[in-house]
Write a structure and sequence with these properties.
The structure is a single chain. The chain contains five helices and five strands; from the N terminus they run αββαβββααα. The protein is α+β, with helices and mostly antiparallel strands and 145 residues long. A hairpin with a 2-residue loop joins strand 3 and strand 4. Helix 4 packs antiparallel against helix 5.
């Protein structure tokens, strides 16, 4: 019957995400980490000037094209001053939590059970770097969970 292989990475396969991340890292990484970040299929290209950005963008798109990766233009934001990336809003001045995500956290009801306390900690842990003294504040939750 012969051998079979995937032409694309199937959804739900156990080693799919780490394999894809390694592929993207190997494809785009070497000597480019000062202007590109990759998380799975999210690619962030950043530059100091518009001309530099055009050069970086052309280089990355060329690499992707040579590797037969397709880019969906509807999902691209090109040459923007601010962007949401991995639930953070990033601009030239700062990285801050995404406003919609913060609103969702603020609107969470106070936890009443250990399970709800663990769920609450899980939801706010992603933004711990933005919460001064997070470990001290979260300690009572950890003590009872």
């Amino acid at each position: 019957d012969g051998l079979w292989e995937f032409n694309v990475l199937p959804q739900g396969i156990m080693n799919g995400p780490p394999t894809f991340q390694r592929t993207m890292h190997n494809l785009l990484g070497y000597g480019r980490w000062d202007y590109v970040m990759v998380y799975l299929d999210d690619i962030l290209i950043f530059s100091h000037t518009f001309n530099e950005h055009k050069h970086h963008l052309n280089e990355i798109l060329s690499i992707l094209a040579k590797a037969n990766f397709q880019v969906n233009p509807d999902k691209c934001s090109i040459a923007v001053q601010e962007i949401d990336f991995l639930s953070h809003t990033i601009n030239e001045h700062c990285i801050k939590p995404n406003g919609d995500k913060i609103k969702a956290i603020v609107d969470l009801p106070a936890p009443n059970t250990l399970k709800e306390a663990n769920e609450f900690l899980g939801k706010i842990n992603w933004y711990r770097k933005f919460i001064p003294n997070f470990a001290r504040i979260a300690a009572p939750f950890h003590k009872v969970t």
